[in-house]
Amino acid sequence: MYLECMSLQSINEPAAPSRLALWQLGFRPFFLAAGLFGVISVAVWMALYLFGRTPPVTAGALGWHAHEMIYGYAMAVVAGFLLTAVRNWTGRPTVTGWPLMLLALAWLAARILAFGGPLWLMAAADLLFQAGVLVAIVRPVVAVRQWTQAGILSKVLLLLVFNAVFYLGAGGWLADGVRWGIYSGLYLLIALILVMGRRVIPFFIERGIGGNVTVRNDSRVDIAGIALFVIYWLMDLLYPKGWPMALVAAALFALHLLRLVWWHKSGIWSRPLLWVLWLAYAWIVAGFGLRAVAAVAGINPLLALHALSYGGLGMMTLGMMARVSLGHTGRNIHEGSRWLGPMFGLLFAGAVARVLLPIVMPEHYRLLIGVSQGLWMAAFALFVILYAPMLLRPRIDGQPG
Predict the structure, then answer these.
(1) pTM for the predicted model, two decimal places
(2) Distances (CA, A) of 80 to 73, 325, 341, 393
(3) Which of 169, 225, 280, 310 could form a disulfide with 316 if both were Cys (CB 3.0 to 4.6 A apart)?
(4) What whole-number distance in Å separates Cα of residue 141 and Cα of residue 72?
């Protein structure tokens, strides 16, 4: 149910035959695209931010960077994950072959059109991609009446809506549309992590460590966390400063810190595919804490934002891509490559450079951003090197998909 694979083969074993398998299942093209775009888009951002290059990009350099990391990189991960997971949850097929290729081409067209293409055409390609993914995951869920997935589907629908809001703002048709689209997109992705994390992280820890390990959860914490996060999202859009925002952020910090403590087991530290998810969640907790301080003190709120995005979203998506790719190519997720730890470590170090070091070294802020950009690119380059061969080739156990 949770994308596990019990094959006894490992990531280091001989590669499968060279037949192309890229269009066999959604995680393959979209995880590869996300990995490549994770390198390319941040290289472009480095050229824009550090070296003053001025290629024509939609909504200006900062708007382009924020939009593309949310609706370009992260949406590719979401598409790959859900097109694969929904098939497992429902037992019904999701798109493969030519339909999957067309979805990927729509995603790619939007990324290319950001560089000087007509805004309406970029918007059309981007929204068509998201609408196609939504239809592809809704159909099997509706077919088996699996209404428990409604919360996840609604978040994917809202991501489509707020991407449209971004484009209305970028085109000058909706005041503050760019900001609403970017912030809402990020918070919807964090909401997906909070919901999916509650489902899978305890499960992965219990299965990964083995023995009689039991990970605690509490439905009251779950409900309070969802309600408070909706308030947090709305307040950050409308009333981002002052004590009310600080109190809501502090409450979220306390609730999710409690969950993080419950989920911690010493056995995770010998398994990179476990500790990367736990640390990603820890960055989200840190983001809430920093936002509480920023609302009433002099800390830059962008540090809290990047704790959520670079640390939380970045580490969670990289960790899940690594895990899902192993399981769905017939490899043993408990015997990953020795390079997984360094790959995740590079991204964690980048988050430290982007979020924590500027607090104590504000005079080096620009340099630290450059360091964080370099570490992000190194982590995703390593992902592409490790995972591109297995994403392109058939499963090594001979099973379909």
Answers:
(1) 0.93
(2) 11, 10, 23, 16
(3) 280
(4) 25
Does residue 4 lie within any of the structural domains?
no
Question: How many whole angstroms from its chain centre is CA 114?
Answer: 21
Structure tokens at 300: 């830059």
Cα 57–Cα 62–Cα 65 angle in degrees, nearest 5: 70
Q: Identify whether 308 is part of a domain.
A: yes
In this structure, is residue 16 part of a structural domain?
A: no
231: containing domain: 27-392
CATH number at 296 reads 1.20.210.10
Q: How many domains does the chain have?
A: 1
| Count of other CB atoms within 10 angstroms of residue 118 | 10
Taking only the tens place, the pLDDT of each residue in 143-179 is: 999 998 999 999 999 999 999 999 999 999 999 999 9
Residue 5 lies in a domain: no
Half-sphere exposure of 329 (CA within 13 A, CB side): 31
Q: How confident is residue 135, by pLDDT bands cut at 50, 70 and 90?
A: very high
What are the pLDDT digits (tens) for 36-89?
Answer: 999 999 999 999 888 877 666 777 888 999 999 999 999 999 999 999 999 999
Q: How far apart are the first and last CA of the chain?
A: 16
Supply the DSSP string of 263-314, one letter for each residue: H--GGGGG-HHHHHHHHHHHHHHHHHHHHHHHHHSSS-HHHHHHIIIIIIII
